[in-house]
Design brief:
CATH topology: YaeB-like fold
Helix content: 40-55%
Radius of gyration: 16 Å
Shape: globular
Order of helices and strands: EHHEEEEHH
CATH architecture: 2-Layer Sandwich
Number of helices: 4
Strand content: 15-25%
Number of domains: 1
Strand order of the largest sheet: 1-5-4-3-2
Largest sheet: 5 strands, mixed
Structural class: alpha+beta
Distance between the termini: 35 Å
Mean pLDDT: 80
């Protein structure tokens, strides 16, 4: 099974890399390698991570407390996000609910597409 990193997930990995370069350059390469190995290792055990409540995503925690969120499809593992555990979690359904008018929005066109 192949692993596909989304552009957003790769941006988040490089932001972590840049942050660590400023504060702990010695650990930067090790953390980066751990993130990439953990993500790429999902090709062998795609259901290794725990399920994310109320979504079809899964998440795995790396040895440096970062969370990789991903979705398993028939032929690939799609890595969607990477974040540090100290950061506030995201609601995986919020963009969908907002797009479908379940949260207040001023975009009437978006509301029509969902019904």
């Amino acid at each position: 099974m192949k692993v596909i990193w989304s552009p957003s997930a790769l941006r988040q990995v490089f932001r972590i890399y840049d942050y660590l370069t400023d504060f702990n350059p010695k650990a930067t390469d090790e953390v980066f390698a751990d993130l990439m190995q953990t993500g790429d290792g999902l090709s062998h055990f795609p259901h290794r991570g725990r399920p994310v409540p109320n979504s079809d995503m899964r998440e795995v925690v790396t040895s440096y407390p970062d969370i990789i969120r991903y979705r398993v499809t028939r032929d690939a593992v799609r890595i969607l996000r990477v974040r540090h555990t100290a950061r506030r979690p995201t609601n995986p359904l919020k963009p969908y609910r907002q797009f479908c008018g379940l949260y207040p929005t001023t975009d009437v066109i978006a509301f029509r597409f969902c019904w």
